[in-house]
Amino acid sequence: AQSVSQHNHHVILSEAASLELGCNYSYGGTVNLFWYVQYPGQHLQLLLKYFSGDPLVKGIKGFEAEFIKSKFSFNLRKPSVQWSDTAEYFCAVNAASNSGYALNFGKGTSLLVTP
Amino acid sequence: DSGVTQTPKHLITATGQRVTLRCSPRSGDLSVYWYQQSLDQGLQFLIQYYNGEERAKGNILERFSAQQFPDLHSELNLSSLELGDSALYFCASSVTSRFEETQYFGPGTRLLVL
Question: Nearest CA to CA, how far is A93 from chain B (Å)?
Fold first, then answer.
């Protein structure tokens, strides 16, 4: 079955620590990949996206992600987190084989950054 | 602010009732998607409309329906509400319905069914 898996449900880091959130998907064929962030009480905001080209994608607020096709992965990274990065992070995929190209989301990772 | 608006922000109702959630897409966007976010199911796609016509269906219950009007705003109708329908309902919009497009999300409507 088609799915998106985020390995870590809850992550707690100290400020300035490095972050890596895992995302794997099980779709065949061509996919687009996204990371969205949901700050407390706010709507989903796009962090970054991969459509094609350079598999290392840079997004807003110092985030980046690497698409590794052979591993069906799209992990999110940030070298040094800040308290303001505390939020829920969602990996999402849409597949060329799906009509309408709706997003399929992982369960999310809740990140807490402590001062 | 994504430019997508949703009303109301919060809705409290009773089981068996019917409610309507409203979404206005970003200016110029023709496509509207509805998603449900619940603690147990996570974020799930419900339905998509493109320029007034239904384009794709996801895990939408028969008690739920939607439409997109000529001014491109969309409404999600939820009827015969059950406790399990309590969730955050998001709408998202995109310019068209092509594969390589970004969806922009609204602030959501939080529905509580008592």
Answer: 11
User: Which segments within chain A are labelled E, that is strand?
Assistant: 4-6, 10-14, 19-21, 23-25, 31-38, 44-50, 56-58, 64-68, 73-78, 87-95, 104-105, 109-114
Q: Do B44 and A105 touch (CB under 8 A)?
A: yes
The residue among B66, B54, B74 whose CA lies nearest residue B6 is: B74
Burial per residue of B85-104, b for 16 or more beta-carbon CB atoms within 10 angstroms, e otherwise: bbbbbbbbbbeebeeebebb
> Do B34 and B74 form a contact (C-beta atoms < 8 A)?
yes
pLDDT tens digit sequence for B4-27:
999 999 999 999 999 999 999 999
CA distance B81 to chain A (A): 24
Interface contacts A/B by beta carbons within 8 Å = 61
- Picking from B13, B20, B35, B21, the residue whose alpha carbon sits closest to that of residue B82 is B13
Counting every residue written for chain A, the total comes to 115
A113: its two tokens: 């950054």
Model pLDDT for residues A64-99, shown as the tens digit of each residue: 999 999 999 999 999 999 999 999 999 999 887 776
Report which of B56, B44, B2 is spatially closest to residue B24, judged by C-alpha positions: B2
